[in-house]
Input
Amino acid sequence: MFQNKDFGKTIITKTAGTKIASEYLKGRVVEVSLADLQSNEELSYRKIKLCIEDVQGYNCLTNFHGMDMTRDKVCSLIQKRQTIIEANVDCRTTD
Output
């Protein structure tokens, strides 16, 4: 789906006793710029949220969690004396 599959590192505590380190990562939501994932600087205003679903060794498997736009891009889209209407929609896809 994305050209670049490696986009960052995250910090966790080491496994100690009955607490497994990979369990701390599951469910975390990371935010990354679409420009970093697609290697295209024109898409830098879109922020993608990915939820960590599974950990395999040193790699985390993520799932799409949401998309947002940077504040400067939203402000540039809105002209004076106009307001923005935000809407959230839950949708299901076939894939």
User: Anything to note?
Assistant: Helices lie at 21-25, 34-38, 71-77. The two ends are 13 Å apart (CA to CA).
